[in-house]
Amino acid sequence: MMKYFVGISTCCFARRFCVTLVVLIIFTFLFYSRGGERNFLDCQKKYSQLSPFYQICLDSRFKAGFGQCLPPLKHFDAKFRITKRYRIGACVVEKNMSTIMAAIICFLHNEDAFLQANRTITNDPYKTRFCKNKNEFKNVKSMLNNTDTNLDDWTMIVIVRDPIERFLSGFVDKCINEAPIRNNGSVCYGCKGNLSCFVDRQFERARLYGQDARKSRAWTYEDVHFFPQNWHCNFQSILTKYHFLRYYNADDTLTNPNENWLTQLLSILERNQVPEESRRMIQKELLSSAKTAHSTVGQEDRFRVQREFEGSADLKKKLIQMFYFDYILFGFELPE
């Protein structure tokens, strides 16, 4: 148990979130033990004074004990990219700089081959990525089996993002910007850029998956981009093995130098003996191109969607119900 708490402390950026995270771990242990539902509710009541929004998932009428919020740590999609040379494994989550992180790990997988192929970290598109099927795994078990290693041999990293920022950015990117390109009436469930419509449809899909994944239909493109982050990456079994790199938006790469994800990443690369030349190349390229092709920062639709979200108490409540445990687990501050 102590090892569990020590490991989880690495993902906290403020004391209050460390406290909150420890509370969640207690919840998780109690919930999956005998009488877990009752114990979870008792603990949730005890700590609900941390913030008004911490009470949003408290509703004893629901069997799971999470109220109308989605449950934490469900088994869902996982995409691992590795560099065995430096023993770094990255789980990439859509809308969390996933293409960039995959390219960084691909570069470190074989620096010379990557450069000789005229690839760059900021221009290695997913569909034509250089490392396709070379250093990629769909679960941690296959990663370990294929490399003949143990999990303790690896430094595991993942970029996590403010949940609502991720959702709204994803909505603009996938449901508005990509709609003409995909040319499909079923894009984002046919909501045609209507945020409330899409939130309702996506929440219902996530709710059904959270209740029983076996009864859910096949994952959709939207599910992969909008389901909670804490359902990805085999978190349900290896949560404490990760170093969490917090990403807010494209501007974060250039601000808050002690907190941004790139600073954290470079520190990890140095500890894993990645050569200084390689680290400098990664840093230089990312700082010269902070935005990716999928970035929605500065777009008018992004401002419009943000205003709609901020002006709707119902939207805010439902999105917090969707991503409550992303906020708790990854140490982001809940909206007011």
TrEMBL record:
Q: Please name the Pfam families in this protein's record.
A: Sulfotransfer_2
The UniProt GO MF terms for this protein read: chondroitin 4-sulfotransferase activity
Q: Which organism is it from?
A: Ditylenchus destructor
Transmembrane spans? 12-32
Name a single GO cellular component. Answer: membrane
Q: Which GO terms describe its biological process?
A: chondroitin sulfate proteoglycan biosynthetic process; positive regulation of response to oxidative stress
**This protein's record includes keyword Transmembrane helix:** yes
Q: What keywords were assigned to this record?
A: Membrane, Transmembrane, Transmembrane helix
Q: What is this protein called?
A: Sulfotransferase family domain-containing protein
